[in-house]
From TrEMBL:
GO terms for biological process: 'de novo' GDP-L-fucose biosynthetic process. InterPro entries: Epimerase_deHydtase (IPR001509), GDP_fucose/colitose_synth (IPR028614), NAD(P)-bd_dom_sf (IPR036291). One of its GO terms (molecular function) is GDP-L-fucose synthase activity. It is an enzyme of class 1 (oxidoreductase). This is GDP-L-fucose synthase. Residues 5-245 form the NAD-dependent epimerase/dehydratase domain. Its EC number is 1.1.1.271. Coiled coil: none annotated. It comes from the Eukaryota. Keywords: Isomerase, NADP, Oxidoreductase. Pathway: Nucleotide-sugar biosynthesis; GDP-L-fucose biosynthesis via de novo pathway; GDP-L-fucose from GDP-alpha-D-mannose: step 2/2. It comes from Polyporus arcularius HHB13444. Belongs to the NAD(P)-dependent epimerase/dehydratase family. Fucose synthase subfamily.
Length: 328
């Protein structure tokens, strides 16, 4: 039986992580490409998924049997705070067009991608798969959060009315090669890597925004990629699945900045700009359900320092073509 996997958002951080694993893991190994599988990694230059006609044409071209739906308007705290409506509307349009076409083209499976920032800001911790809709998300990203929550609702409606096997994954903050380093829209880790690199290059202070106190869990894109591949092949429940490192891996923004300073060998002045927002203080996610499901796969998370070093090396080697916000 031929399996045709369409990866929307295939040109981005997570999409390129999946491409790296499929291209480098031994064929027919637990996370490698299986016989009879074809993988298609697409970005917005092939189809603007906000556009129904273009999305339909994309499905006609690839006739996918399976979809990993990563395509989205994505960004860090500060761009989310500035563009709440764009993050709501663009992602609602993208998600509805992809799920509608996946239904029309009778796809056997769709995994969409949520995020731990969709969770209620005020809820008993740790976050688990049952708490997504138990209250309002944090003010800073309510546009993105509500659009992503709606995907869970859409999946349940497609399953209920048509029996479609549509589900979703909930990663924590992700980092790795091919990340977005544009200081305007970047997430914290790539932003700190880029800003520390510039401080070292220009002999200026390294400035971290906010107090440095908020806590986050970070998953390496190449680890997340393996978990998406496992979920595609082994998980058929409509309930979303948290894909994350453990709660004990929660680190402060200051600890992340310290690790970036070490990884880049920065020796200059290093300070915090507390006039900038801290955003949500923490969003600790439990990966208990995931660990129970993958215990026999031999999967191991990459140690944070090693993953950060590999990401920094990719950034330094690809600075000229990376998304840095400077004119290409
Ligand atoms: P990214 O690096 O910014 O990549 C976004 C991808 O979506 C790119 O391939 C981009 O294509 C595509 N895309 C954007 N707008 C599009 C449009 N209108 N039509 C078609 N394609 C479009 O983002 P990422 O970090 O890999 O995110 C992947 C998924 O993970 C997203 O669903 C995101 O919400 C989720 N997520 C990310 C994080 C994180 O920390 N990064 C955490 C949790 C969840 P082009 O590059 O060709 O424009
Ligand atoms: O990754 P981030 O932008 O988003 O991290 P969230 C924000 C935290 O990092 C805040 C601090 O506490 C900021 O004060 N920070 C320090 C910085 N320096 C910087 C910097 O230069 N850039 C950025 N961006 N932050 C996002 C959601 O929340 O999580 C998104 O807004 C998405 O929608 C993403 O879900 C995964 O972790 O706060």
């Amino acid at each position: 039986m031929s399996v045709r996997v369409l990866v929307t958002g295939g040109t981005g951080l997570v999409g390129q992580g999946i491409k790296y694993v499929i291209d480098t893991e031994p064929a027919n190994s637990p996370f490698g490409k299986q016989d009879g599988e074809e993988w298609f990694f697409v970005g917005s230059s092939e189809a603007d998924l906000r556009n129904a006609e273009q999305t339909k044409k994309l499905f006609e071209k690839y006739k996918p049997t399976h979809v990993i739906h990563l395509g989205a308007l994505v960004g860090g705290l500060f761009i989310n705070m500035k563009r709440k409506l764009d993050f709501l509307r663009d992602n609602m349009l993208i998600n509805d067009n992809v799920l509608h076409n996946a239904h029309e083209f009778k796809c056997k499976k769709v995994i969409s991608c949520l995020s731990t920032c969709v969770y209620p800001d005020k809820v008993e911790y740790p976050l688990d798969e049952t708490k997504i809709h138990l209250g309002l998300p944090h003010e800073s990203n309510f546009g993105y959060a509500h659009a992503k929550r709606l995907v869970d609702i859409q999946n349940r409606a497609y399953k209920d009315q048509y029996g479609d096997n549509f589900t979703s994954a909930i990663p924590t903050n992700v980092f790795g090669p091919h990340d977005n380093y544009d200081l305007e829209s970047a997430h914290v880790l790539p932003a700190l890597v880029h800003r520390c690199y510039l401080a070292k290059k220009n002999n200026t202070p390294f400035v971290v925004w906010g107090s440095g106190k908020p806590l986050r869990q970070f998953i390496y894109s190449r680890d997340l990629a393996k978990l998406f591949i496992w979920q595609l092949r082994n998980y058929d429940d409509v309930e979303p699945l948290i894909l994350s490192v453990g709660e004990d891996e929660e680190v402060s923004i200051k600890e992340v900045a310290d690790a970036v300073v070490k990884a880049l060998g920065f020796k200059g002045e290093y300070k915090f700009d507390t006039s900038k927002a801290d955003g949500q203080f923490r969003k600790p996610a439990s990966n208990k359900k995931l660990l129970g499901l993958i215990k026999d796969t031999g999967f191991k998370f990459t140690p944070f320092d090693q993953a950060l070093q590999e990401s920094v090396e990719w950034f330094l080697q690809n600075y000229e073509k990376a998304r840095t916000g400077k004119p290409q």
